[in-house]
Every structure is written in structure tokens, then in C-alpha cells.
Design a protein that fits this description.
8-stranded mixed beta barrel, Hypothetical protein af1432, 389 residues, TIM Barrel
């Protein structure tokens, strides 16, 4: 029997009001998810383990696709089912949802309910903010149920509007604009120092010069040592100094941690930066695709760097061209960051898109199956980064 082709689906992170990833939203890339797509996705070995401890929210047009063979693949306490509210008007649909709730499944009702149709006793609400339909008012969000998810939230203003009416989980490109305020003082100095360190590392500077830069910023030193000693990057020996960090993990790994620290939270008691896991996701995706192609370590490093650096213009109040000018980057990396040129640029375009289509995949020379596995690996890594920085 021929293997089932890997379906194209949109996978997007879901964050709470504290900027912490809590789930991944899965829906059809161009149409509703059917039973074959669910079967293919959740037959992936260790899918839920790879994204743990995050939940998966699957958007369905109807509970009718939830056949016994598919339900056997789903873990009730890890999978939330977002069902179109209008589907409850179908014969037997409301009873089907109630039966699955008794089996431990959680439901979000997506969209406006149909008048006269009984709703489940306990459920969350989902709303596609990008759709031209009214946002539910706070009184219509069940106060003792939840979570309540707003997706397609593409600006800081939209995020605030959804939060104001009671939504507590959010998904969309608002993460690219919903940033902590730039103080222009200590935070700006820290990031400039990081860029200086990255430039020194790229020029193979002496350890003394690197350590001198780092010691000027105690907060940066703390974040670096915390990251290097975290569960995600442990090397088996506790590292207590910058020189030891270089000796134990090497310049290559150190350069990666410094790249990620550009996006670390600005204050120890402040919320996480939403850009951090997104940058880690892009970097890990491009690296995985490069490795799949047989790229050597240097090529993988450049791919990772391009992915991480692709969000710097969202972080700094300056254009990407000005940022790139201060870093000694290879020409193909510059071309990818500035103009999305070359194979790396096409893959960066793909990595930045939550809903890939065949044309994007073809331009990036990536098969759907390779894309799915690279993305799953990247999500696993980005989740660990977010929990340890």
C-alpha cells in the first residue's frame, strides 16, 4: 500500500495573556480538515510528545469526522476540538459532542451559535478575528468554561480588543507588533552589546575581548549562563563563567545562544518576548531543511542565523538594512534577509508563513513531508527555548 501523502495544514502558536505559548492551532491550509488529514497528522509518531507540554487545538467543520479510528489517535487531555458552532444544528451533532465530553474531550465552539440549538453544558469559545463577523461580547463568553480562543489576531489593537471582551488565548501575527515598549535606555544598550558580541564572534575575536563586553552587562551574563545551563542545552556540567561556556560548548553554540538572547525578556520580572520562540522556530526550521539537503555545519549555522535574524527589524526600531550593515554576514544571508532572494530567501519566506501552499513549497524546493517533519522538529526546539530563556 502506498504511504499516505502528508497533508498541508496551518500550524500556529497560541499564547496566553502573559505571552506564554500554551497550544498549537491546527487547521486546514485551504479547506476544512477531513478524516484523512486527521489520520495522517496524528499517526505521526510522537506528535503530541514533540509539542509537549502544549495542547493541540484542531479546527473542525463538524464532529462527524471524528470516527472511532481517529478518536483512538487523540489524547483527550492534550487535544482540544474547535467545532464550528453551526455544525451543532446537524442531526445528532449536539449529542455526539456531549458523548465525547463524557469521554474527556474538551470543546471550543467556533463562531456564532445557531438560534434554538442546545449548546454543550461546558465549552470554550473560539472566534476567527479575521472573519467579517462580530466579535462575541463578554456576556456571551461562558465565565466558568474556557479557554476562550481568538485567532487570526493580526495587530496589537486587535489583541487588546479581544482581551477586553474576555478572550484569554490568542493566535495570529499580533505577536509581530505586540512588543514591550522600547525604553531606549538599558534595554537598548543590552541589545547593542549583544550585536557587538555577535560581530566579535563572527570575526573570531579573542576570548578576553568577548568576556570584556559581557562583563559590562550583569543581566546579559545572567541570561547567558541560565540559557547555557538550561535543560534544553545542558552539556552535563554546570557552567559558571563565560570563559568556561566557550570552553565547554564552543563558539558555534555560544553564537547561537547569543542570537536567541537578542529576544530575551527585557526585565527579569517582565513578560516573555513573543518574538523569542518565533525566532527560534524560524531558525530551527531553516537549519533542519538545510541538514536534510546535506548541508555542512557552516551552512546549517548560516540557515539558523538567517531564521533568527529575520525578526530583528521587529525588535529594533530600525530597518533591516541598517541592522545587517553592522554585521559581517555572507552575501547570500544578506540577500535572504533583505530581499528574500535565493534558496535561503525562499525558505525564509516559507518559514514565516503559517499556511504554506504548493507554490511556496516548490519555490523553496521542499516536499510536503519534509516540511512537516522539519516544522515539527522546530516547534519542539522552540518550545524548549521559550521555557528556558
Amino acid at each position: 500500500m502506498a504511504p499516505t501523502p502528508t497533508p498541508l495544514v496551518e500550524v500556529c502558536p497560541v499564547a496566553n495573556a502573559h505571552n506564554e505559548w500554551v497550544a498549537l492551532l491546527v487547521r486546514g491550509a485551504s479547506e476544512a480538515i477531513d478524516g484523512a488529514t486527521l489520520q495522517a497528522l496524528f499517526s505521526t509518531p510522537d506528535l503530541l510528545d514533540a509539542v509537549a507540554p502544549l495542547d493541540c487545538i484542531v479546527v473542525l467543520d463538524s464532529p462527524a469526522v471524528l470516527t472511532p479510528s481517529i478518536l483512538a489517535l487523540l489524547t483527550p487531555h492534550r487535544v482540544l476540538l474547535a467545532v464550528r458552532a453551526r455544525a451543532l444544528a446537524e442531526e445528532g451533532a449536539a449529542r455526539r459532542v456531549s458523548d465525547l465530553q463524557r469521554d474527556g474531550f474538551r470543546f471550543l465552539l467556533d463562531g456564532a451559535a445557531v438560534s434554538g440549538v442546545a449548546l454543550p453544558a461546558s465549552h470554550g469559545v473560539a472566534h476567527d478575528y479575521s472573519a467579517p463577523v462580530p466579535v462575541p461580547v463578554q456576556a456571551s463568553l461562558p465565565p466558568l468554561s474556557g479557554p476562550h480562543l481568538a485567532y487570526g489576531v493580526d495587530s496589537a489593537a486587535s489583541f487588546q480588543a479581544c482581551a477586553n471582551v474576555g478572550f484569554d488565548w490568542f493566535s495570529g501575527d499580533y505577536a509581530l507588533t505586540h512588543l514591550p515598549p522600547q525604553s531606549g535606555g538599558e534595554d537598548c544598550s543590552t541589545r547593542k552589546r549583544l550585536l557587538t558580541l555577535l560581530a566579535l564572534l563572527a570575526r573570531d575575536a579573542d576570548v578576553h575581548d568577548l568576556e570584556h563586553q559581557l562583563k559590562q552587562d550583569p543581566a546579559l551574563s545572567y541570561h547567558l549562563l541560565k540559557l547555557v545551563n538550561s535543560a534544553a542545552f545542558t552539556c552535563g556540567v554546570e557552567i559558571s563563567s563565560f570563559a568556561q561556556a566557550i570552553g565547554r560548548i564552543g563558539r558555534r553554540q555560544l553564537q547561537r545562544w547569543l542570537q536567541l538572547l537578542l529576544y530575551a525578556r527585557q526585565h527579569p520580572d517582565g513578560p516573555p518576548n513573543l518574538l523569542l520562540p518565533l525566532a527560534a522556530l524560524r531558525g530551527a526550521t531553516l537549519e533542519a531543511l538545510c541538514k536534510r539537503d546535506g548541508g555542512d555545519r557552516d551552512a546549517q549555522d548560516m540557515a539558523f542565523m538567517a531564521g533568527v535574524f529575520s525578526l530583528l527589524d521587529r525588535l529594533f526600531p530600525m530597518p533591516m538594512a541598517a541592522i545587517v550593515a553592522g554585521l559581517p554576514l555572507p552575501r547570500h544571508v544578506e540577500a535572504a534577509l533583505l530581499r528574500r532572494e535565493g534558496l535561503l530567501g525562499q525558505r525564509l519566506r516559507l518559514a514565516a508563513c503559517g499556511r504554506p501552499d504548493p507554490a511556496l513549497l516548490d519555490a523553496a524546493r521542499v516536499e510536503a513531508g519534509d516540511w512537516w517533519h522539519a516544522r515539527l522538529h522546530a516547534y519542539h526546539w522552540a518550545i524548549q527555548v521559550a521555557r528556558n530563556v
